[in-house]
Amino acid sequence: xxxxxAIFPRDTGLQVRMLVTLFLLGILYVAFIGVLAALxxxxxxxxxxxxxxxxxxxFLSDKLGLAxxxxxxxxxxxxxxxxxxxxxxxxxxxxPKPKIAVADTDVPNAFAMGRSQKSATVCATTGIMKxxxxxxxxxxxxxxxxxxxxxxxxxxxxxxxxxxxAAMILQFSFFFGGGDDDDGxxxxxxxxxxxxxxxxxxxxxxLALSRYREFxxxxxxxxxxxxxxxxxxxxxxxxxxxxxVPQQDLRQAENLNAFFIVPASVKGSxxxxxxxxxxxEARIARLxxxxxxLQGTAA
Length: 299
Fold this sequence. Notes:
Layout: H1 12-38, H2 43-68, E1 71-73, H3 80-93, E2 99-103, E3 110-113, E4 121-125, H4 126-131, H5 134-150, H6 152-171, H7 181-225, H8 228-242, H9 247-253, H10 280-298
Parallel strand pairs: 2-4
Antiparallel strand pairs: 1-2, 3-4
Helix pairs in contact: 1-2, 1-6, 1-7, 2-6, 3-5, 5-7, 5-8, 6-7, 7-10, 8-10
């Protein structure tokens, strides 16, 4: 019997946010390069430098992310159950099958990376595969595949790139804006302030998109699997299991928080304005609403 494919309604909110984020990042890019060039950094040098970094981030971000987690790609022979699950979910989501990786860590998490649907990689940790039931893990992997379906992973990669470049310039701003004592100090100060502004704007753009895209991916997972309650249970279980993970392991994983299904927060941390994900309670409440809607449709 053929598998019925899920129907994804158009998510205008996510698409608008992605376009606005790209537009604002483009303005930041042009302004940043323009200011640095005007201050004597050298337009050609800056374009080559930033362009090279952007190309590296675009083509290598998934490899760097996987390496940071110690993940490796697994074959169907090495992980037959995971491959079969993702292949079935891809058919339902009308997606090409991505590369599949596993990270050998107790941190219970999963993430997706890649610049396109054809080049995507989804990764699950050994911790999450041990902690969740098959239906819960299916909900998590459907969530990650929805990120691939929505193409929001690329936008997040670009947003994090601009923030990273600005942070690096902040650290080495005294190397730019040479000149004599009368001009050098003001130039360095302007570069510092511009870099700080770019970093702050990029950071908050990344946070705003990250929070919304998690809601969108939760919704997509519910549509693919038809079981929002399974994903709700998975989110709660992951959050509880995270409290049992040593703080050192959590800190090592925190650099990928924006890409995780649940942030790897250290014990005792509190929710702040700078959270990469919406509150767990809000996500569960929306999934419960979806559960009610699906049950109402089925009835």
